[in-house]
What does this fold into?
Amino acid sequence: MGHLGAVPEKFQEVFDAVPKRGYRDSVTMEVESVLVEAGEIIATNSQTGKGFDFGLYDLRKENQAAKDPAFREKHADEAGQAYYALCWLDWFTEEESNNLKALPGVDGKSGKESAYCE
It folds into this structure.
């Protein structure tokens, strides 16, 4: 929640129910599911204007990367996320996905490779 500055009301209701935490006190919390329709706005800005951390997960089944024993071992401490993460770029329109892929990595590399995206 600390990454987003403005969200639609249905998301704000979920965020308001989560206890506030201190600066850099980051934890993953399970919250009530919120269904999102194609094209629906999920956020309109970040608090700093620099971007935000965005993950997308399908907890119904493990992803392709989780089938690799080396990946499982490397990410065993974060299995709840790593084994179920999706390539979030696949959930945008082709034009939006291409625009996002064209953005530079934070340090020229970070953010340009993913175990979840082909």
About this structure: Residues 1-54 form one domain. Residues 94-102 form the longest helix (9 residues). The CA atoms of residues 35 and 113 lie 28 Å apart. The chain has four helices and two strands.
